[in-house]
Amino acid sequence: MAAHSDYALPFRIEGQNVNGRVVKLNALASEVLLRHDYPDAVNRLLGEALVLAAMLGTMLKFDGRFILQLQGSGPISMLMADYTPEENGLGGLRGFAQFDEAALAAALKAGAPPMALLGDKAHMAFTVDQGADMERYQGIVPLEGDTLADAALGYFERSEQIGTALKLAAAPLLLPGGKTEWRAGGIVVQQMAATGGVVDIETPPEGDPERVDDDWNRLEILLQTTEDSELLDSDVSGEALAYRLFHEDGVRVFEPRALSFACPCTRQRVLNMLAGLSETDRAEMQAQDNVEVRCEFCNENYVFAPDEAFSAV
Ligand SMILES: [Zn+2]
C-alpha cells in the first residue's frame, strides 16, 4: 500500500491493555476546510473535530458511522464532523460549522477560549450509526473545559468512565505566495474497559491495581509531552511519534487506516429528503422558480425545477 498522508494509525501498549491512535490529516485537512470559507478560529476547531471523529470512529467496536456534534447558543451554534468507514477499507471524513461572523469576531477579541465560542449551555454529542436496521448509540454531555480535547476528556469521564488521554491540534500553514494550507493531527491513549462504551474492548486491566494506576499515569504524562509540531508536521509520521513516546512501554503499531474526504450526498438523497418535508414547507418551496438545496458538508448545490423536486411525492 502506498504511503498515505492522511490516516489513523492504531497502536497498542503491550502488557497494559491500552489502545491508542495517532491521526494525521495533511492534505485532507485543507480538502475539508477549504471547501468552506470559514474564519481561522472555526477552521481550527473543525480541524480538531475531524481528528477527534477519525480517532473515535476508528476505535469503534463495529464498522459504523461516527458523528461528533457540538451545539450551543454562542457565536458558533453548531459544528459537525463525521467519519464513515468505506468499502475499500478507507475512512471518509467531512464536516461543517454554523456561526455568526460578527459575534465570533467580538468573542475572539474578548479572548474567549475555543469552547466558550459555543456559548453557555452548549453540549457535545457522540452518535454511532450502524445503518438502518441497527440501534443508534448516542451519548450527550455538557461542553466543559476550554478546548475540544478538554471537552472530549469530560465526555469520557462522565459517560464512559474509561481512562483516556488525548491531544488535538489544527493550524494553518502559510506557503510562499500567500497560499494557506491546513494541517490537523492528534493522539489518544485509552484504557480498555470490560464492557460498554464506544471503544473496542475485551478485558479489564490485569494485575495489581496500584501498579496499573502508576503505569497509566506514566502514559498520560508521556502523551502530554507531544508537541503540536509533532501532530502537524507531515515529516513526523504517526509511527515515529508512537515510538518516540512509548517505545519503553512496548508499543506495537498496526496497519494504518487511510482517510479521505467523502460526502455521500446525491441528487436522489436530496429528493428523498424533500419528499419527507411537511406540506407547508413543500408548498412554500413549490412557489419558487427553483428548489435549491445546498449540502452543508461539501457545499454542493442541488437545483431542481419545482415539479421535479416533488415528483416522487
Ligand atoms: Zn455533500
How does this structure look, described?
- The protein is an alpha+beta fold and 313 residues long.
- The protein has two domains: 6-261, 3-Layer(bab) Sandwich (Hsp33 domain), CATH 3.55.30.10; 267-309, CBS domain Like.
- It is built from ten helices and 13 strands.
- The strands form two sheets. Strands 1, 2, 3, 4, 5, 6, 7, 8, 9, 10 and 11 form an eleven-stranded mixed beta sheet that branches. The chain has a two-stranded antiparallel ribbon with strand order 12-13.
- Zinc ion is lined by residues 263, 265, 295, 297-298, 300.
- Zinc ion (ZN) is lined by residues 263, 265, 295, 297-298, 300.
Major sheet size, sense and barrel closure? 11 strands, mixed
Note the beta-strand portion.
25-35%
Number of helices: 10
> What is the rounded distance between the termini?
46 Å
Percent of residues in helices comes to 25-40%
CATH-derived architecture of the largest domain: 3-Layer(bab) Sandwich
Summarize the structure.
By secondary structure, the chain is of the alpha+beta class.
Keywords:
CBS domain Like; 313 residues; 10 helices; two-stranded antiparallel ribbon; Hsp33 domain; binds zinc ion; alpha+beta
Question: How are the SSEs placed, and which strands pair?
Answer:
Blueprint: E1 6-13, E2 18-25, H1 27-33, H2 40-57, E3 65-71, E4 76-85, E5 91-99, H3 101-109, E6 123-129, E7 137-142, H4 148-160, E8 164-174, E9 180-191, H5 209-224, H6 228-232, H7 238-246, E10 251-253, E11 257-261, H8 267-275, H9 279-286, E12 291-294, E13 301-304, H10 306-309
Parallel strand pairs: 5-11
Antiparallel strand pairs: 1-2, 1-10, 1-11, 2-9, 3-4, 3-6, 4-5, 6-7, 8-9, 12-13
Bound molecules: zinc ion.
The site of zinc ion has 6 residues, from loops.
